[in-house]
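Record type: ASSEMBLY
Status: queued
Input:
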Amino acid sequence: MEQGNANRIGPDSRGELRRGFAVLRLHLAAARFALRIETRYDPNQPRVPAGNPDGGQWTRIGQRVAQARGPRGTLPVRIGSRFLEATPGQQARYQAARNAYQRALREIQKLEPQWKPPAQLFETTEGAIRAQQALTQAALVHLRQLQARSLLPGRYSTDSFPARNSGFNFTRAERDGINKIGRRDGCHTCGDKDPGSRSGNFVPDHQLPSALNPSGRAQRLFPQCIRCSRQQGGFVSGRTKR
Amino acid sequence: MSPLADIRLPIHNALIYVRNTGDWDVPAINGIGHLWTSKTCVAVGCLPDIDGATRIIVGDAADVPRTEHETFDGRIETPSKFVTVESVYDHDLAVVTTGTSSTRVQIWTDGTSLSSIIIVGVHRHD
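Status: finished
Output:
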């Protein structure tokens, strides 16, 4: 018991120890500062992730390269104007959505060159994928609307003929060809194999519709039923009315 | 008196519009039936061009011939005090002065949705 008492620290010793620790902390901070000055070391500086040729190397802050903390197997991918970490699976999902979007947009812009879906905001890679999928969905919905209004080749379009001009003076061969496609595959807009006409002929429908093709782009002829032809007439008039 | 217009034309999209001259609203045409209306327009289905020409007669209601199939008898708003008859691609087949901002219009057809005759009778100053 006496020995135990000999090891006890008195109030004076405690004060000395506190001072000693304070001095040590000061030295440590000075050493860290000196190390940064000498080596430009920054524990928060990002590194190029594994999988890159420069994997593990420090990168400059502000170079918009992926953060070192990304999960293994990810790569920095440029999405819009940003670089985000993405796994190969995420890259594939993003690219699939992007390809579908661009296909739909190309079709829409034949009729509406200025059309764009509403912009999307995102922060993360998954957010970027969902944003791209939302853009694709918006483009596909708009494309389906235009197709349902016969303002673009419809969902049931298969074969077609090049149109000689934008007029409605069709040759016998053109009429027979359109009827053949129509009886086999139906109206290009609704798929109905009954044209609804007195003669049993399908309407050779210009795509783009002649009234909506002021620049004279090459048109093609698709088979169309009377109901869809009338519906198309209403939508064309809505866009061209004086 | 004779009608103001009596013409035969192949009509693409198989539609004839009877509407206010100037500003007008295209009726919602869904392809079902053969008559669609808005406040300023009546759209009536006719023979499609692939089946031949449609005869279109336009004039004062008292002057035009009639069939036994009256398809429409009603009023459209005509703030311009003129009525235009046209198709999707053939504009101004006929323009009739009405003198009133609401015009009674009567339309007769052959009774089918692919009518080969469209008769438009306009009640002027009525």
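Annotation: The radius of gyration of chain B is 13 Å.
Annotation: Chain B is about 0% helix and 50% strand.
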